[in-house]
Amino acid sequence: MSTHPSRRSGGFTPTGTISAPADRRRVVFATVVGTTVEWYDFFLYASAAGLVFGQLFFAPAGPGIAQVLSFLTVGLSFLFRPLGAFLAGHLGDKYGRRVVLMLTLTLMGASTTLIGLLPTFDVIGVAAPVLLILLRILQGISAGGEWGGAVLMAVEHAPKTKRGVFGAAPQLGTPLGLLLASGMLGLMALIAPGDAFLAWGWRVPFLLSFVLIIVGYYVRKKVEESPVFLELSERKEKTRAPIVQLFRKHALLVLIAALVFAGNNAVGYMTTGGYIQRYATNPDGPVGLATADVLGAVTLSAASWLLFTWIGGWVADRIGRRNTYFVGWAAQLVGVFLLFPLVNTASVGLLTLGLVILSVGLGLTYGPQAALYAELFPASIRFSGVSISYALGAVLGGAFAPSIAQALVDATGGTTAVTWYLAGMTLIGVVATLLLRDRSGIPLGPDHEAEQTVSPIRGVTRA
Questions:
Q1: Cα–Cα distance for residue pair 79/267, rounded to 1 Å
Q2: Cα separation, 383 vs 375, whole angstroms
Q3: Residues of the chain with pLDDT under 50
């Protein structure tokens, strides 16, 4: 086995790890900051779609239809996440993880800031929702490319015994982004309540994205490229058409990996997609709570989700990725069946309890995902594999979960059907997890492509 020269702060080994702990800490910090900014922007839109976009951009369609259209714009962006994943996967496998992360961060921040400046329907007519949708599509493209680069930067820098907890670092950006987005909107709902929130209060968190993007860009610029990619580059072993190779040899694996995430994502988008926020604050609905109270509950649940995401990554290094998932799926199923009975009490405390309980399972099935995905795919096509699996899982899971939930409530007059829909998506995740082998600790470097190419699908020996 050959070795390679050291890189600036301590070098890399053929297994794809950096030797200096300071470099590892820098990578972890950069991935957390970057993904937090990305998901703050992404979830800010989803929360605003549940709270104000229906009234400001789609009001002529009528109250009921306006809200459905608003939620559909949340889902529409998911259809463009695979495009972002395809582009990022190709660029990331050919030119590196770091350059893609800089591009996605800039695109997301610019789109979010422009939404904060966008005139409403009353000012520019139909051009307002059209521009809103275009900017949301750009957010979707950015989100599709962001995740794969962030998790590979973390996992490919990690010692093989700590990939779960290192991989959980960029995953923390999701609940942190939700916490910041809900917290900022909740703060503005207190500072500028009622008509002031509709007039200008909702815009402030969007405009704040410009500042956050500068911080995230600066932090990421200081991080070294992934050692696995550096090794591939030095050996000139980069795949010319990684996406073609991915689908020619690993199409079934991509689908199964996507279904694992879909089981988590559909349930998570009850809050990150803005559905619970709208359902619980709708003055004509069965709950009718104050906007600030609901956003406060979502913020607390995001803090719980953050904690259990980290725990999920930590536990995955001790009992394996699959076993951690199974514990998480069981907890998520409990949360699904308790969610709406607690929300429908119209008690802020019980609403918060329901969301916190749900976050336990969401965290335990989200924390191990980065390590699980990175260990599924060979080094030369890994960025494409993890990015496309993640984006496809988001389409199958959370893309239209708020719209489906709204349609089910409108059709049945209650939330029981929504509960069974979410339980069904959780069980799909369970089945997909059962189909995969646990490959915890498998070498990630290009020296071990032959071992990595052995199919991780149970019952299948070769890709």
A1: 18
A2: 11
A3: 1-19
Greatest pairwise CA separation for the chain in angstroms: 68
* pLDDT recorded at residue 102: 80
Q: Is residue 14 part of a domain?
A: no
Are 339 and 355 a contacting pair, CB within 8 Å? Answer: yes
With CA atoms as reference, report the closest residue to 75 among 131, 171, 143. Answer: 143
Report pLDDT for 235.
60
Residue with tokens 């990684």: 242
Helix (H, G, I), strand (E, B) or coil at 454: strand
* CB of 88 closer than 8 Å to CB of 144: yes
Write the CATH number for 347: 1.20.1250.20
In a domain? residue 1 = no
> In total, how many domains does the chain have?
1
What SS3 class is residue 401? helix
pLDDT of residue 336: 97
Specify the amino acid at residue 247.
F
Q: Do 427 and 361 form a contact (C-beta atoms < 8 A)?
A: no
**Residue-wise pLDDT tens digits, 301-323:** 989 999 999 999 999 999 999 99
3-class DSSP state for residue 391? helix
Let me know: does 314 contact 168? Beta carbons within 8 Å: yes
Phi-psi region of 62 (alpha: psi -120 to 50; beta: other; left: phi over 0): left
Q: Would you give the DSSP letter of residue 12?
A: B
Asked if residue 455 lies in contact with residue 462, where contact means CB atoms within 8 angstroms, the answer is: yes
Q: Strands (DSSP E) along 115-264, which ranges? A: none
Rounded distance, CA 199 to CA 329, Å? 42
Q: How far is CA 144 from the centre of its chain?
A: 9
| Structure-token match 């590979």, residue found | 152
Those residues whose C-beta lies under 8 Å from the C-beta of residue 67, and which sit 6 or more positions away, are 54, 58, 278, 406
One-letter amino acid of 306: L
**Can you give the residue range of the structural domain that contains 335?**
21-453
Residue 7 belongs to some domain of the structure: no
**pTM score above 0.85:** no
Answer whether 84's CB lies under 8 Å from 104's CB. yes
Category of 394 on φ-ψ map: left (φ > 0), alpha (ψ -120 to 50) or beta: alpha
Distance of alpha carbon 459 from alpha carbon 216, whole angstroms:
43
Of 83, 84, 81, 78, the closest CA to residue 103 belongs to 84
* Exposure on the CB side of residue 25, measured as CA atoms within 13 A: 3
Residue 112 lies in a domain: yes
Q: Which residues share a beta bridge with 462?
A: 454
Is the distance from CB of 353 to CB of 359 less than 8 angstroms?
no
240 phi and psi, to 5 degrees? -70, -40
Q: How far apart are CA 98 and CA 229, in angstroms?
A: 10
